[in-house]
Amino acid sequence: MRQDLFTLDDGSVLSVDGMASLYNKYDRRLTFKGDNGSVRLPQLYAQWSNLPSLNGGSLWAGRRYYKRNDIHISDFYYWNQSATGGGIEDVLIGDLKYSYAFSRKDNLYQKDYINRHDFNVAGFDTNPGGELEFGLSYIDKPDSRDAHRGWAIATQHVQQGFLGGKNKLAFQYGEGPGTGLGYTGNVKLDDSNKSYRVVEFFDWQVTPRFGGQVQAVYQKDVRPDGRDQNWMSLGVRPAYALTEQFKLVTELGHDQVDATGGTRKLSKFTFAPTWSPKGPEFWARPEVRVYYTYASWNQAAKRAANELAKGSALSDTGAFGTARHGANVGLQVEYWWN
């Protein structure tokens, strides 16, 4: 929610943005507090936008979602600079837009305050409909024992008009705490710890009634303690509208992690009849879905869940016990606000 406070004579605008969040884990009693969930303001910041002195750029300070890049079908935010801090955004110099943000805390779950600097340059026209963006994150060494500095770089190409949608291809690399690849990573890691990631996904809308999204992610983590791992994630969500307001949506996904203790695997299938009152397109919202999901996983994935995520669905103490497959059904509403 945004509230414009003043519009100045030069056309610049002073505003305040806020967002409330109610979160509760799906398998817990509805309390919105403690281990069950939370009530908080994930966004609350002031902004002075459309400044002529910054060629249309803006100044901001507070807690905000900032330059978030995600894969919609998996809710994976692969390049996300959201944090509590402040900065200068989208200053136009020539044909390029420059941004800088200084932040101290990524989110509610980061315990310590850590200085992070994010630099972005966007607007490199590479081809018709294609644009390139570069980013650098630098994480200061905290004043704590055995802590280290870190850094990460990212470059992303966005192609508009691809099969009626758009394609995104991103490359990321980080060292030390920069292995968070856009987030603030573990400050106990030194620069011998490295992470590489490639992200490729696109959405399509080849007819008014047939659209979808497909994704591929590969990440390699190098750790000198021998805990190297390689992660691969593949997924596709096609949607076909039988009428102007009713879609059939399916999704297939597979994740695999090669790590110490074996190769962890999980595959899933979802079928969701969907009411879409705003139209048949893939991105039309709101949507009301009745869904069925079936998933299976191997013994290595179960062992990892028992060790790293006790109580989760894959673990022996989770909803499916010692089984290595399971299903659930539910009702989901997706609604977007500006």
Mean pLDDT level:
95
CATH top level class name of the largest domain? Mainly Beta
Tally of contiguous helical segments: 1
The tally of domains stands at 3
Shape summary: globular
| CATH-scheme architecture of the largest domain | Beta Barrel
Annotated CATH topology of the largest domain = Maltoporin, Chain A
Low-confidence stretches: none
> From the structure provided, what is the oligomeric state, counting identical versus distinct chains?
single chain
* CATH homology-level superfamily of the largest domain: Porin, LamB type
How is the secondary structure organized here?
Elements: E1 2-7, E2 13-24, E3 37-51, E4 57-64, E5 68-71, E6 76-80, E7 83-93, E8 96-105, E9 116-127, E10 130-139, E11 150-162, E12 165-175, E13 194-207, E14 210-222, E15 229-241, E16 246-259, E17 262-275, E18 287-297, H1 299-308, E19 325-334
Antiparallel strand pairs: 1-2, 2-3, 3-4, 4-7, 5-6, 7-8, 8-9, 9-10, 10-11, 11-12, 12-13, 13-14, 14-15, 15-16, 16-17, 17-18, 18-19
